[in-house]
Prior knowledge:
19% of the residues lie in helices and 29% in strands. The chain has helices spanning 6-22, 42-45, 102-116, 122-131, 133-136, 157-165; strands at 31-35, 49-60, 84-95, 149-153, 175-185, 217-223, 236-242, 249-254, 257-259, 263-265, 268-272, 280-288, 297-301. Strand 8 and strand 9 (257-259) form a beta hairpin. The longest helix is centred in the N-terminal third of the chain and has 17 residues, at 6-22. The protein starts with 5 loop residues before the first helix and ends in an 8-residue tail after the last strand.
Amino acid sequence: MSNHLAIATVTATLKRVLENAVTGKVPGTSTTITVGQPDPRDAATSNDGRVNIFLYQVTPNSGWRNADLPTRRADGSLSQRPQLALDLHYLLSFYGDKTKLLPERLMGLVMKTLHTKPFLPRKLIQDTVAANEALLQGSDLADQPEFVKFSPVSLSLEELSKIWSIFFQTPYVLSTAYQGTVVLIEPDDEPVASSPVSDRSITVSATPPPVPASPPTITQIRSQAGVREPITPGSRLLIHGQNFAQEKISFIQLQEQQINVENIHNTEIILTLPSGTEEGVKTLQIVYQNGIRSNLARFIVRAAGGVNS
């Protein structure tokens, strides 16, 4: 996972990605990449090309939000580092000589680059941290198990107008929005080891104690239509695992939704995914009437009619 420098490291690395994308690619003009809120003087300062990066919003990542299990024991001691999952929302603005279509040419270069390589390579992150050691020393974003990926955000004219309205007396320039996901941040606190056994004893009984049943465990979630078929809203799911039928199931927890179970076998559950389920990474857990819960399993919901990759 990453530390508190992750957000700044993403912005700095994105700046390097765009620098590599536009440097020397537009003949007859120099192009720079800047970071910060658009300024009212920006549009009239120069006809040279420029791309500005502005982080205008940070939101919790819906797919990873419920994956953070309880992290403290009953006595308050830390058993597992808490994890903060974030999405970063960027506004990219393009400046330059409009008579030479420079903003449009720069936008094309940037969007092509982020479509061709939509993630931040680990080597580039490490190089960015090394080049900005005074600001980013100690950043470990490159060690995060998930790549930070960028995807274009389709903003309506009203949404784009609202974003630009927060920039006081700043005229609109050609711009587009991108989302970077996911950034996983953990604190530096070290978990406390469990206390050692204080009382060692062996109890002998003529009647052996009952063997506790193994906990219910989910091993796979897939579409009933086939292993290689995508899971889409309304799909029938096959939940594979073990010990499903040892206790009476109360419901299936899908993100914040509670879904009734249809068909239960000890190693398989059949479930219909709600038709209104949004695409993305989802978490699922089996909840029993006696309070027992299965492990937390993840799967991906794709848009209906999407391409199976």
